Amino acid sequence: MSDSTRRETKPPAASGVHLEAGAVVPSATAATREGPEHTAMPQAYDAILLSGFGGPEGQDDVLPFLRNVTRGRGIPDERLEEVAHHYRHFDGVSPINQQNRELLRALRAALAAEGIDLPVYWGNRNWAPYLDEALAEAAADGIRTMIAIPTSAYSSYSSCRQYREDWADALEAVGRQQGLQIDAPLKIDKVRQYFSHPGFIRPFVDGLRDALAAARAAGHADDAIEVLFSTHSIPTEDAAHSGGETFAGVDGGGYVAQHLAVAREVIAKTGPGISWQLVFQSQSGPPTQPWLEPDINDTIGALEGRTAVIVVPLGFVSDHMEVMWDLDTEARETAEEHDLWFARTPTPGIHPAFVSALVDLVRERIAGIPVERRLNETEIGPWFDVCRGGCCANPRLGFKPAIAGLQP
Predict the structure, then answer these.
(1) Which tens digit of pLDDT belongs to each residue from 34-77?
(2) At what angle do helices 198-217 and 253-270 cross, to 10 degrees?
(3) What DSSP string describes 306-375?
(4) Cβ-contact 94, 58 below 8 angstroms
(5) Which residues, listed in sequence order, are joined to residue 344 by a DSSP beta bridge?
(6) Strands across the sheet with 47-52, in order?
(7) For the segment 200-250, what is each residue's pLDDT rounded down to a tens digit?
(8) Is residue 52 part of a domain?
(9) How far is CA 211 from the centre of its chain?
(10) Quick one: DSSP state of residue 15?
């Protein structure tokens, strides 16, 4: 789509979701329509849907993009401009779209190398190319069953359920498009949350091992190094619902439990005696709304007896604005203010182990690999193929149609 015809708004919210007669899971394939936690039924797919968050690629894109991200919350442009300056500092360009283009190429190459002959379509939730554009292209190409890969590894409203809602929005939008004749509705399954897959964990292990070596080479003893595993803060109410009933009553819900499980695995493989913490960043809600803490900058400022800090962006699949600004800019500046040596390890990006993991997640579902044979490296997991009812709900926004999971 050319810049002159590119839309500035994402598809409207879905008013309903297609349900086949007797189906439990909306818009599901035969393998998942009855809603198993894990399926061992082989399923033939026509294509893969790589789903990203999206990001602006120029100064004129910034405010329309932020309006899409915050749609339905009534946030005025004046407040959005407070966030927009992060993007404007980088000429209005988020790296996330280019990161996804690189991942798209790497994933296609890895699939071909494994003999998996499936096309990969790419659509974003909040900026071009939008999800409904990707689905319209797929439908026009004769695609009817897809396996979706969200570029987010953990359970929470923003990292799982909201993807499922936006897929529902996109499916309804495609169904409304004039001139597009679809003889059967598109069906979309999703891969499991992949926080526990060894291919997701490996890039963090490699990055932390290298950073620890660099800190030691710079003269910092192990007992003077602090490792901060950082992820996006979310409202505590959302955290409590993340992961559903599995984590009912657990402080921070599945979102925190899953991050801690991965952090423990990474530290065990790199430096079991190194001090570490799980910290949070990028809080964006009103001061009256509780969000997960501690904040990364507050934590850095309060460190005692440390001469070096290593930040591991554990919650992120690739570099984007929250990594470039909140970590590479603000957290680094905070460390410098406190005379701390600073390093930030890489995100998975297109690390070969991560790309191979995504191929493996697709292979699991094509072959119907039973859960006990799936790759997993934490005490939590492998996670569900079909999200449980109410999992990762957002009580403030109320029920919204979503696919790839049990209703509601």
Answers:
(1) 999 999 999 999 999 999 999 999 999 999 999 999 887 778 88
(2) 50
(3) -SEEEEE-TT-SS--HHHHTIIIIIIHHHHHHTT-EEEEPPP-TT-HHHHHHHHHHHHHHHHT--GGGS-
(4) no
(5) 311
(6) 120-124, 47-52, 145-150, 187-190
(7) 999 999 999 999 999 999 999 999 999 999 999 999 999 999 999 999 999
(8) no
(9) 24
(10) S
Residue 97 falls within a domain, yes or no? Answer: no
CA dist 323 and 95 (Å) reads 10
Q: Which residues contact 92 (CB under 8 A, 6 or more apart)?
A: 56, 57, 58, 59, 60, 61, 62
DSSP reduced 3-state for 281: strand
- Domain with 291, as residue range(s), is 198-344
Residue 302 neighbours by CB distance under 10 Å: 9
Tokens 């190094």 sit on residue: 225
Q: Is residue 188 part of a domain?
A: no
CATH code at 278? 3.40.50.1400
- Please state the domain count of the chain: 1
pTM value surpassing 0.85: yes
Query: Which position has the token pair 């790839």?
Result: 404
CA distances from 117 to 40, 121, 333, 349, 374 (A): 21, 13, 47, 23, 22
Asked whether residue 94 is assigned to any structural domain, the reply reads no
